[in-house]
Amino acid sequence: MKKAVHTDLAPQAIGPYSQAVQVGNLLFTSGQLGMDPVTNEFPATAAEQAKQSLNNVKAIVEAAGASMNNIVKTTVFLKDMNDFAAVNEVYASFFEQPFPARSAVEVARLPKDALVEIEVIVQLG
């Protein structure tokens, strides 16, 4: 059985989807843009957007009763792969070993013309 997970500490869904869905002991987040949940504004750089995106992910993961250490897989979507090093530096500050598995891909465009979007899979319990 699936259950939606929601928090006001992350941006509200901008379409017909949940911030996250829990199935058994797994949590799947929707992609989180680097948008401030209060102002709905984006920071200027990819690194700043990555930090906000991961703060949004953290809020959702914590709303499900877990922590960033429970994340087992991440996917990072970048508008420009030239931002990889700067985003990677921010990303590393949110995790400790053993790091989650990760994919990072450059995409043609992200919602709201964001520079970064990050989604995660979390093992709960």
From TrEMBL:
One Pfam family per UniProt: Ribonuc_L-PSP
Gene3D superfamilies, sorted: RutC-like
InterPro entries documented for this protein: RidA (IPR006056), RidA_CS (IPR019897), RutC-like_sf (IPR035959), YjgF/YER057c/UK114 (IPR006175)
SUPFAM superfamilies: YjgF-like (SSF55298)
Domain of life where this protein originates: Bacteria
Protein family (similarity comment): Belongs to the RutC family.
NCBIfam families: Rid family detoxifying hydrolase (TIGR00004)
Protein name per Swiss-Prot or TrEMBL: RidA family protein
